[in-house]
Amino acid sequence: MRSLALLAFPVLAATLAIPQAVKASEAATVRKNRDGDQLFVDALQAKVSQTVLSPPQITTQNSRGQLEFQSRAAARLNRFTQLRLGKRCLLRAKGQVLVSGKQSGCTKSLGLSSPGTNDLISLKDDDPTDVNMLEGSVGVETLTSTEQPAEQADLLSDLLAEINVFRRLAGNPTFPAVPQPVQNAINPYGLILINAMRRTGGCFHGGSNGVPSPFDVVQLPVGWSVLGEVLGCPAEPGVWDPKIVARMLWESPTHRRIVFDSKKALAICCVWSKARHRGDTEAMVCLTLRSEKSKTIAVAPLLITAGFRFRFSDVGKVRSFLKLRPDDYNAILRGPMFTGFAPRVPKLDALKHYITDKIEDVA
Fold first, then answer.
1. pTM (predicted TM-score)
2. Helix (H, G, I), strand (E, B) or coil at 206
3. The CATH number of 6-18+145-297 is which of 2.40.100.20, 3.40.50.2300, 3.40.1190.10, 3.40.33.10?
4. What is the pLDDT of residue 124?
5. Confidence band for 4, pLDDT divided at 50, 70 and 90
6. Could you read off the pLDDT of 309-329 as tens digits, one per residue?
């Protein structure tokens, strides 16, 4: 196995070891297992009334299941569905999930803030995400951005998305994409440090080995300041990957404190340099940031109201939307998310009232 390393400022050396146990911050109870016993918690077969503590991976194969959360909200999982529990977010990875009640959710590219409604989410690994708002409304926030320098755009956009998955699991707000002037101010320092590490064959932070500290030389726009620094040490091409970097940061207590648990950090800005020639290495420098103007870069969430289906791309952009017809409601109510399930979902009466009041020809 390759030896991978990340460094965190101001620690001079922090080698990642065996993943640490994660403290439970949310809980759910298995209330129903339909069509068989193929509902699993971290690959172990789940039992009815079992309490599940975050952040496990919950999957179904050729079975359906229902979970109840501390908020009294419920989630129904269709066959071949995968999700993970977090402190503020029910992370949907693939499949189909019906959420009824106050339980916010997210995907890799979307955050869904629910005050207590009935929504049906359908997504697959490589397909668009469909949000069916059956009753009530939900705010949708895009968690990814492609507004980065061309050379780094894909890597940094994917890395931000992966980092934000764990920010939500930690119960903290996601990082927005930084404004271009902030990225422009950090790029020169990041490249200086990366080139110095390449030249010496070592891994170190600014403030040593002839490289100035980012606190001294990075001139950010007014209202912005540097909080900390984490590094992806020089490695052979192909070692670093957005998923690997985010996971290793999460599993290291030092890096997790700086990137995911920090209440002061409001953004992260990275410089990722790929190998330039045969025998070269790739490396990454990320600075966590604080901003007095953070509200000015936050994007107001899209509000999806009852009776609409929105389709999103894999980077969280709206592809299309349409009004749900009576036939759509009939198909959903007679489909696998409702047929044969007991107990009831908590907002079922609200859904019935909405359908009776607003939708005609629904049996």
1. 0.59
2. coil
3. 3.40.33.10
4. 63
5. low
6. 888 877 777 777 788 999 999
Radius of gyration of the chain (CA): 22
- pLDDT tens by residue, 221-250: 888 999 999 998 898 888 888 889 999 999
CATH architecture classification, 27-143+300-358? Sandwich (2.60)
**293 vs 290: CA distance, rounded Å:** 9
Query: In the predicted model, is pLDDT for residue 10 greater than 70?
Result: no
CA 257 to chain centre: 17
- Give the containing element (helix H, strand E) for 272: strand 267-273
Scan for tokens 């107990």, then name that residue: 343
Cis peptide bond N-terminal to 343, omega within 30: yes
Could you tell me which residues are beta bridge partners of residue 121? 97, 131
Residue showing tokens 């509200």: 295
Residue ranges covered by each domain of the chain: 6-18+145-297, 27-143+300-358
Distance CA 238, CA 240 (A): 6
Going by C-alpha positions, the residue among 277, 204, 267 that lies closest to residue 236 is: 277
- Other Cβ atoms closer than 10 A to 134: 26
Residues 101/347, Cβ–Cβ less than 8 Å? yes
At 283, which amino acid appears? Answer: A
Angle of helix 242-251 versus helix 153-169 axis, rounded to 10? 30
How does residue 152 score in pLDDT terms, banded at 50, 70 and 90? low
Question: Is 67 within 8 Å of 74 (Cβ atoms)?
Answer: yes
* Separation in Å, CA 276 to CA 151, 196, 232, 236: 12, 15, 17, 11
Say which DSSP state 287 is in: E
Using 50, 70 and 90 to split pLDDT, how confident is the model at 63?
Answer: very high
Q: pLDDT, tens digit, for every residue of 184-221? A: 889 889 988 998 999 898 899 999 888 889 998 888 98
Contacts by residues 214-223 (CB-CB < 8 Å, ≥ 24 positions apart):
214/9, 214/186, 214/189, 214/287, 217/189, 218/185, 218/186, 218/189, 218/287, 219/185, 220/182, 220/185, 220/186, 220/289, 221/179, 221/181, 221/182, 221/185, 223/291, 223/292, 223/293
The pLDDT of residue 22 is 30
